[in-house]
Amino acid sequence: MPAIPVTVLTGYLGAGKTTLLNRILSEPHGKRFAVIVNEFGEIGIDNDLVVGADEEVFEMNNGCICCTVRGDLIRIIGGLLKRKGGFDGIIIETTGLADPAPVAQTFFVDPEVAERTRLDAIVTVVDARHIAQRLADSHEAEEQVAFADVILLNKTDLADAEALEAVERRLRSMNPFARILRTERCAVGLDDVLGIGAFDLDRVLAAEPGFLSEDDHEHDQSVTSVSLAGTRPLDPAAFDLWFRTLIQLKGVDLLRYKGILAFAGSDRRTVVQGVHMLSDSANLGLWQGGAERVSRFVLIGRKLDADALSAGFAECAAR
Amino acid sequence: MSRSPERRWETGAPVVAIAVNRDGSHAAAALGDGTLWMIDLAEAGAEPAVVPVHDGACLALARDIDGGGFLTGGDDGRLRRIAPGTGPVTLATAPGRWIEHIDSHPRARLRAYNAGKRVHRIGVDGQPDGPVLEHPSTVGGLAFAPGGQRLAVAHYGGVSLWWLKGAAEPVRLDWKGSHLGMLWHPEGTHLITLLQESGLHGWRLKDRAEMSMGGYPTKVRSVGWTTGARFLATGGADCAVCWPFTGGGPWDKRPLELAAGAADLITVVAPHPTSPFVAAGCGDGLVLLAALDGSPPAGVAPASGSAVTAMVWSGDGRHLLYGTEAGRLCHIALPERAGKRPG
């Protein structure tokens, strides 16, 4: 049975999440979506598969301090799976004040949800005029940008070009993975927000060019990204120890990370990605014959010590 | 063994739950297309009556207070009663909510169901009985105590134990984590909950002694008492793990592992009500009967490729019913010399 793709829509209050949701549901795509909303009544579309969520965030009793999940999502998805006929996808709208981590972690931690669904992407809608202020005063707004696979920089018609450039630079420095799309009234093609496969390891590989961006970091912000790169092949045991220690000690502050790594003695590219302490990796695809084997590892998080990370990563090079 | 009479239907919708009524005349299967299939257990030639009871999916099924009827809950927010030969009656509605957990008790003469964090009680006359019971988070399971004097409600962080008469505040049994279902010991002495974290928790009520039963590769979704409550049989592993409850509880004892070696995990267990064996249904549709003496299990149904999602015995142990996610519904009537393991 193919896993059902799940799209998470986040964004601060008033950014345009409901507009995007109504747009997705009203397009003539012939697909059937189950929609999990935090507030009934805002959806203008008649859909018998709209379910209200309670946003119950639970700590797992598994010794992992940052492992919180959305208990209501586990329950609702379990119930939806009992329905005859099924549906083509699930869309989860979160409240403006929601932290995306428990939502994302639910798809890795719960065995039934992990088996039957796959997290396709986190889509964050931001208001081009207000996002700078939101980032300054709201922890959740920062998380929503940090976790995004696609950022809709919305209401661009209401902001001037210079301000848009500045906002986009800021978003890019916080989250180098995300695709940033400028929109008015959330007008995007459905292919830009659905079927992204952002958590698939092979898509991490396909998105490699975007990895290279070395942006100017703003050191006054709390969520930052650190890009690590090295041309010497890595020692598997050394990297494993460094990485495991890192996610154990810094898992709470590490929001998302993706890497494409070259290990000594392997002709394959190793891809790693994760959320907090939950990581996933695989060996995918051969390195091209003549191409230089560069290991790249990008981390998004809080209180990231770029120098220490850089030194630790360099120490992993095979001798 | 001579082939037992078996009836089989392909319903086309996931089988969510199956129950047999108290007098043993009928079984009901609640399906993911909102229908209830009512099966006459005595009339081998009769086709099931298919009755639409919910818009959307059925989510819960239980015996009603009387000997004949059933209660169903659905994602249309309705609690309905249906009895053989009659149409469904709506007992309660919870607009915008799902009704996922239901129980009833003949001595308490009550039905209980949840809508989100709240538990409501309804009397025989169909009217609300007693105040609404509030909980700190969405209810994960509820069950009347065997004696019918208490109601246990599982939720995040533990269980609330309500007296049906008297105290306005529940006794709390605390255990961190999400509790997704529960089962009373038939003597009312222990309470077991099913955890989000791949295991079980439990309390011996007289001294609040706690027990944790772990080591499962996935969430345990199905538990049941073997005859005489000697063992608690559980799904969620590649064998039917049976925890001994003779001599006070499972502390410091090793569980029995029955029906080991199945190709897929056991999803549903149904201990026989009067004889020492357990029916186990697997993720690939295989159904086995395993004796508690550890002798090799007997096959009841081969793997169909679709997980067994519900399985139940009639109270006299002469009828076994099971259903799968793909919608297969089976009724197996055991030979008259019931009480011995067929084999």
UniProtKB/TrEMBL annotation, chain A:
Q: Does the keyword Nuclease apply?
A: no
Does the record's keyword annotation contain Hydrolase?
yes
Going by the UniProt record, its keywords in alphabetical order are: Chaperone, Hydrolase, Nucleotide-binding
- SMART domains in the record: CobW_C
Question: InterPro entries in the record, alphabetically?
Answer: CobW-likC_sf, CobW-like_C, CobW/HypB/UreG_nucleotide-bd, P-loop_NTPase, Zinc-reg_GTPase_activator
Q: Where is the CobW C-terminal domain?
A: 223-317
The protein's annotated catalytic reaction(s) are: GTP + H2O = GDP + phosphate + H(+)
Query: What's the domain of life for this entry?
Result: Bacteria
What is the documented function of this protein? Zinc chaperone that directly transfers zinc cofactor to target proteins, thereby activating them. Zinc is transferred from the CXCC motif in the GTPase domain to the zinc binding site in target proteins in a process requiring GTP hydrolysis.
Family the entry assigns: Belongs to the SIMIBI class G3E GTPase family. ZNG1 subfamily.
User: What is the protein name for this chain?
Assistant: GTP-binding protein
